[in-house]
Write a structure and sequence with these properties.
The protein has helices at 6-38, 51-60, 71-100, 107-137, 146-151, 155-158, 162-168, 171-188, 199-228, 239-244, 248-259, 268-292, 302-313. By secondary structure, the protein is mostly helical. Helix 1 (6-38) runs antiparallel to helix 12 (268-292). It is globular, with a radius of gyration of 20 Å. The two termini are 35 Å apart. Keywords: Membrane, Peroxisome, Repeat, Transmembrane, Transmembrane helix, Transport. Pfam families: Mito_carr. It is found in: Peroxisome membrane. InterPro entries: MCP_dom_sf, MCP_transmembrane, Peroxisomal_Ade_carrier.
Length: 319
């Protein structure tokens, strides 16, 4: 393996462009979802009963454009994250195959490579993720720029939620377990017992297995949003109580204390819908760009296509 790895670069570029398009199209919905998740109040004092309340607030206060607050930072973070992840995943996979001498990669090795690529990605881009979340959860019309958002707090606070982000990179292990079981059942019922799935079948099974994994990890996702959220001018809590919510244990306690068990799953349905839409749009964008970039998809073996499309189907978690 010598020289410049053009194949990994093409993968990374195509994946990053697909992610960029998906992020931009769904951003207003993502802003509504994030502000809805970040609110922590007892049921009788809630400002937002559902996502439509967030949208109506933007319309009624003539701040519709504020639904795009933080879009530049989110796109920057999305592009860099996708590029690093796709490049790292493709590069480490190819390195493993060449060094091990195997013609294909096993499931366990594939999941380990995906986790390593994901952990490296979030460790590098976490400040951008934190800044984007704070911009989105700021009061409409009061969002600050990227540098001001990061510089007004310490660099340690710029990495808020890093532990949860790294933890969530292991989601593929949960998702693939469900995916593999569903895949085996589907293939057993097919005529001729084929050994691989179509791209559409892989995507659909990826979406179903993602929903199952989300149910297990969503409390951590809700905590991450709260930890990274901006302070609202309408918060009635004192400073000590607000700061206590910036830790995992403090966020968990606050959710349980004010919203009960169901509070851990606030906004889950909306996130699943966004995940499905985002994954579908990224697959379409990825395929279109990849056809233009040397038609690389035709060079991939069927097993790689299946795993690769599956990974695309579960994209959208890291938000």
């Amino acid at each position: 393996m010598g020289g410049f790895d053009m194949e990994s670069l093409v993968d990374a570029t195509a994946g990053a462009i697909g992610s960029l398009a998906s992020t931009t199209i769904l951003y207003p919905l993502d802003t509504c979802k994030t502000k809805y998740q970040a609110e922590l109040r007892t049921p009788n004092l809630r400002k937002y009963r559902n996502l439509s309340d967030v949208l109506w607030e933007a319309i009624s206060t003539r701040q519709v454009l504020s639904l795009y607050q933080g879009l530049g930072t989110k796109n920057l973070q999305s592009f860099i994250s996708s590029f690093i992840y796709f490049y790292g995943y493709s590069f480490f996979k190819r390195l493993y195959v060449e060094r091990s001498g195997y013609k294909s990669i096993g499931t366990k090795a594939n999941l380990l490579i995906a986790a390593v690529a994901g952990a490296c990605t979030v460790a590098i881009t976490q400040p951008l993720d934190t800044a984007a979340s704070r911009m989105q959860t700021s009061d409409f019309g009061k969002s600050k720029g990227l540098w001001k958002t990061l510089s007004e707090d310490s660099w340690e606070e710029a990495f808020d939620g890093l532990g949860i982000s790294i933890l969530l990179t292991y989601n593929p292990a949960i998702q693939y377990t469900a995916f593999d079981q569903l895949k085996q059942r589907l293939l057993e019922g097919k005529l001729g017992n084929p050994q691989s799935l179509s791209a559409l079948s892989a995507f659909l099974l990826g979406a179903v297995s993602k929903c199952a994994a989300t149910c297990l990890t969503y409390p951590a996702i809700r905590c991450k949003v709260m930890i990274q959220s901006a302070e609202s001018s309408e918060d009635a809590e004192d400073e000590a109580e607000i700061k206590s919510r910036k830790t995992v244990s403090g966020a968990l306690y606050a959710i349980w204390n004010k919203e009960g068990f169901l509070g851990f799953f606030k906004g889950k349905d909306h996130k699943e819908h966004m995940g499905t839409l985002s994954g579908y749009k990224e697959i379409l964008a990825f395929k279109q760009k990849q056809k233009q970039l040397k038609k690389l998809l035709n060079k991939m073996d069927e097993a790689y296509i299946e795993i690769f499309v599956f990974h695309l189907g579960m994209v959208a978690l890291q938000k």
